[in-house]
Amino acid sequence: MKYTGQHSFLHACMAAGAGILFAGALFSCANIGRPGGGPKDETPPVVKKCDPEPGTLNYNNNKVNIDFDEIVQIDNPNEKVIISPPQSKMPRILTSGRRVSVILNDSLLPNTTYTIDFGDAIADNNEKNKLGAFSLYFSTGDHIDTLEIAGTLLNASNLEPISDMTVGIYANTDDTAFTSLPFLRIARTDAYGHFTVHNIAEGSYRIFALKDGNRNYFFDNPAEDIAFGDSLIFPTVQMEWRTDTIWADSITIDTMITALRPHYYPDDLVLLAFNENFQSHYFEKYERTDRRKVTVYFSAPQDSLPRITPLNFADGDWAVVESSATCDTITYWIRDSLIYGKDSLQIAAAYYRTDSAQQLSLCNDTMTWIFREKHLRKERKSNDTLPPPIEFMGIANRNGSALDIPATPIYTFDQPVRRLAPDAVHLDLKVDTVWTPVTDYTFAPDSGSMRTYRLRHKWKPGCEYRFTLDSLAAESIYGSPTNTLEHRFKVRAVEEYSNLIVKTVGVEEGAFAELLNDSDMPRYTSRVKNGRAIFRYLMPGTYYMRLCIDTNGNGVWDTGNYKEKRQPETVLYYPGNIALRANWDVEQTWDVYATPLIEQKPREIVKNKPKEEKSEDSDEEEDETPFYSNQPTLTSPRR
Question: Which of 151, 201, 622, 629 has the fewest CB neighbours in a 10 Å radius?
Answer without folding.
Answer: 622
